């Protein structure tokens, strides 16, 4: 059907009093046998399906608004609207409706709106004139007019009659003439009455009256009347703001006069609703619902008119990306797009879809990539807001763009890397922009909103791209601030400079950790491979020593998520790297303080106990129980010891059930043969698990250099230990001891160097005496954690030496916790 006169959009009013677009089609009025009467039918222009079938009920009140709208209610909470493309089409259908109801088409409302509470009273009232008689519009009658308008607001019938009387007699324009006279005469009393009158007319909630009041001719006088609130000692200066302070900026000249007028009108009406009138909560729930609808339809019309003008939008994009455009002009262009996108939020999903596809086609994402990297803070902030609209609307559209871009651009200028760099370089002390960008990044890397089709999976493609091209940019601040080039004598320094980190840097690292924790939960093997190759958990746990408790908690939360997966691949990485050490140091440093850090660490170990993670339980008890056994205000550590001993008993029973000939052949081997066998088992197991893991990420140079210096240190240390077995562990402060966090990335990842094999043994099992640091090889301790048939290697003199040594304090208070 090509008749544009009958082309309409169908709207319904939802529970939030917002109009939902039900589709576009063509309307007709025909007799429908099933409904037994003349009905309005709307068929979709796309497929001819029926969008609306509504019988024209003789008692239904239809309202004609803004020349192109017909609104009515079909049930108590079901409002409908037809928005016509052309006025002529609206007039035709309006005539049909009036014909069925026996009304004159010149009326704007076909029936009086009567609620149940008024209906009976109305029937009992004697015949009265159809309209309310208004007093003559004179200065001495203003008080009478104000009282009349205030009195009718509580009665739906009288409100309707008053609205008709005001409209028919052109009364509003006469009132505004009186306003100008009162202002010239400085008649304060008259101005106060006019405030009450105009406010009361707004609360009549009639679109036909709004059309008059918000016309170019009247709107500034309406605003003027609303300045003279009797409750204020001095009138407000709203007109001065609208005419002098608020400037209409045209980034590209708008030639369409109707569009210009609509933009001006919408801004001023929005100002009246948001600034001048009291908040809606003070009045009835839907007292100004028609005003909200008026603004809504205006915004829809503005967006549609701009969207259809491709020449206008193309010119805006051209100037936005042109290097010759000066900074002020570019700032205005970006602000225009920000407001344009904000207006688009009033559109319904299908219209918003078309809107953003138009922007994408014109090149919004490449343009954002340019402006987000600019120095101007206002431009970057507005560009971030636009980017957030795009990500919220369609993360897939953004992902598709960046993956295509990666094929022809360097990593440094990729859109996602530009976003990450903006997050890292946020100058706001509270990191407001960084928090917003982090949320957008999380949306982009969230597998929950990634599409899976028969031919390809967006999840695998995008995550491969992200970990290859973007992850190194995201983790750069974290790796830099926990870098192992701060090693002192082979021991990772606890960043003496870090304790002086400013709050802003700590916040940034916390944001990055939050994103990485999200990755651990949702990205399975991609993040697992990255953590292993970069030895990331060790680097993160350096932050357990931060003076900023919230940052230490973020680091702990990262480890807790990893352990929460109950993945033996992660568990072996943690035990081989002895990564509980900094966590236990933090617990001991915290002393007897009962705070969030204490509770979080206890919860971590409680989880391991409740879930009975055998490999971690064995590792903790064998290496740290002596340091933890004094903690008795919870039963967690005793519970871990009990679990460990029960498992040990079970293994011994299994061992005893094996025939003695097998035990003598298999289990009575020298330590060297046992070690080689276990290392071979680990390598096979890791190869098997590694099949699902993506290709290793290349390590940075400083990390490659680190193992050599570490091995030299270990050789020196072993030589020194053989000379003097009575060396005490280093004190971190008077009366406190700390485990040495002395394991390289190569040890954590199973590198079989001679020195790295004895990593676990280099840490005394929570003893205060260095002489108890006997070297139990890694293979033996690992065998215990795996719970295999191999018996635990025991050194008889360990217990004797433990009994002889004096118990020393293990805790020290730490300032700034």
UniProtKB/TrEMBL annotation:
Ranges of compositional bias, category Polar residues: 759-786
Cellular component terms per the entry's GO annotation: nucleoplasm; protein phosphatase 4 complex
Low complexity bias spans: 742-758
Compositional bias (Basic and acidic residues): 698-729
Gene Ontology molecular-function annotations: protein phosphatase activator activity
Compositionally biased region (Acidic residues): 679-689, 795-806
Record Pfam families: EVH1_PP4R3, PP4R3
Annotated ranges, domain PP4R3 EVH1-like: 5-101
Region (Disordered): 679-817
UniProt GO BP: DNA damage response
Domain Serine/threonine-protein phosphatase 4 regulatory subunit 3-like central: 144-646
Family: Belongs to the SMEK family.
Name of the protein in question: Protein phosphatase 4 regulatory subunit 3B
Organism: Propithecus coquereli (Coquerel's sifaka)
């Amino acid at each position: 059907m090509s008749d544009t006169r009958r082309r309409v959009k169908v709207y319904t009013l939802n529970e939030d009093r917002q109009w939902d677009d039900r589709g576009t089609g063509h309307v007709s009025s025909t007799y429908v046998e099933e409904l037994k009467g003349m009905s309005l039918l709307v068929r979709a222009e796309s497929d001819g399906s029926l969008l609306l079938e509504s019988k024209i009920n003789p008692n239904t009140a239809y309202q004609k608004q803004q020349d192109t709208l017909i609104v009515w209610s079909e049930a108590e909470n079901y409002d409908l609207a037809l928005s016509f493309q052309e006025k002529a089409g609206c007039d035709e259908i309006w005539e049909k409706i009036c014909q069925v109801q026996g009304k004159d088409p010149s009326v704007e409302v076909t029936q009086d709106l009567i609620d149940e509470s008024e209906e009976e009273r109305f029937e009992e009232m004697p015949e009265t004139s159809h309209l309310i008689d208004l007093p003559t519009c004179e200065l001495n009658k203003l008080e009478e007019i104000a009282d009349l308008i205030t009195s009718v607001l509580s009665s739906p019938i009288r409100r309707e009659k008053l609205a008709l009387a005001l409209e028919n007699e052109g009364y509003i324009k006469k009132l505004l003439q009186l306003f100008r006279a009162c202002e010239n005469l400085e008649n304060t009393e008259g101005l106060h009455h006019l405030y009450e009158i105009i406010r009361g007319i707004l609360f009549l909630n009639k679109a036909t009256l709004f059309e008059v009041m918000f016309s170019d001719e009247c709107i500034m006088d309406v605003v003027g009347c609303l300045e003279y609130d009797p409750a204020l000692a001095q009138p407000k200066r709203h007109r001065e703001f609208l005419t002098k302070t608020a400037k209409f900026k045209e980034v590209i000249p708008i030639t369409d006069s109707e569009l210009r007028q609509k933009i001006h009108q919408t801004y001023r009406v929005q100002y009246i609703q948001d600034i001048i009138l009291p908040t809606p909560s003070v009045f009835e729930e839907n007292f100004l619902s028609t005003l909200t609808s008026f603004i809504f339809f205006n915004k829809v019309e503005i967006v549609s008119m701009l969207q259809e003008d491709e020449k206008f939008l193309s010119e805006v994009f051209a100037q936005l990306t042109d290097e010759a455009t000066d900074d002020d002009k570019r700032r205005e262009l970006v602000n225009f797009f920000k407001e344009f996108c904000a207006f688009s939020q009033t559109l319904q999903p299908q219209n918003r879809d078309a809107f953003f596809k138009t922007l994408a086609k014109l090149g919004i994402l490449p343009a954002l990539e340019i402006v987000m990297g600019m120095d101007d803070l206002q431009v970057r902030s507005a560009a971030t807001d636009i980017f957030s609209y795009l990500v919220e609307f369609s993360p897939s559209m953004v992902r598709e763009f960046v993956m295509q871009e990666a094929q022809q651009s360097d990593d440094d200028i990729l859109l996602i890397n530009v976003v990450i760099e903006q997050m890292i370089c946020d100058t706001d002390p509270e990191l407001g922009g960084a928090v917003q960008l982090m949320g957008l990044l999380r949306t982009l890397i969230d597998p929950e909103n990634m599409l899976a089709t028969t031919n390809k999976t967006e999840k695998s493609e995008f995550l491969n791209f992200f970990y290859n091209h973007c992850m190194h940019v995201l983790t750069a601040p974290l790796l830099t601030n926990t870098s192992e080039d701060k090693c002192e004598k082979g021991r990772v320094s606890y960043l003496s400079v870090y304790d002086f980190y400013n709050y802003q840097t700590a916040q940034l690292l916390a944001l990055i950790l939050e994103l990485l924790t999200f990755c651990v939960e949702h990205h399975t093997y991609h993040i697992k491979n990255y953590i292993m190759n970069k030895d990331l958990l060790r680097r993160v746990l350096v932050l357990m020593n931060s003076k900023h408790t919230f940052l230490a908690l973020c680091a702990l939360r990262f480890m807790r998520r990893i352990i929460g997966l109950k993945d033996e691949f992660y568990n072996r990485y943690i035990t081989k790297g002895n990564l509980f050490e900094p966590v236990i140091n933090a617990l001991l440093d915290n002393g007897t303080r009962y705070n969030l850090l204490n509770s979080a660490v206890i919860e971590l170990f409680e989880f391991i106990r409740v879930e009975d993670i055998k490999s971690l339980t064995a590792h903790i008890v064998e290496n740290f129980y002596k340091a933890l056994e004094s903690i008795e205000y919870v039963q967690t550590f005793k519970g871990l010891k009990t679990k460990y001993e029960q498992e040990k008993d079970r293994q011994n029973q299994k061992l005893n059930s094996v025939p003695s000939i097998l035990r003598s052949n298999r289990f009575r081997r020298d330590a060297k043969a046992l070690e080689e066998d276990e290392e071979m088992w680990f390598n096979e197991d890791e190869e098997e698990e590694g099949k699902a893991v993506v290709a290793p990420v290349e390590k940075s140079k400083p990390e490659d250099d680190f193992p050599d210096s570490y091995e030299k240190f270990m050789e020196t240390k072993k030589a020194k230990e053989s000379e003097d077995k009575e060396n005490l562990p280093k004190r971190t402060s008077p009366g406190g001891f700390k485990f040495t966090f002395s394991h390289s990335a190569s040890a954590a990842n199973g590198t079989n160097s001679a020195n790295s094999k004895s990593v676990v043994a280099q840490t005394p099992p929570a003893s205060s005496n260095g002489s108890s640091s006997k070297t139990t090889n890694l293979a033996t301790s690992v065998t215990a954690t795996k719970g295999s048939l191999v018996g635990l290697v025991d050194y008889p003199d360990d217990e004797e030496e433990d009994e002889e040594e004096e118990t020393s304090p293990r805790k020290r208070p730490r300032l700034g916790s």
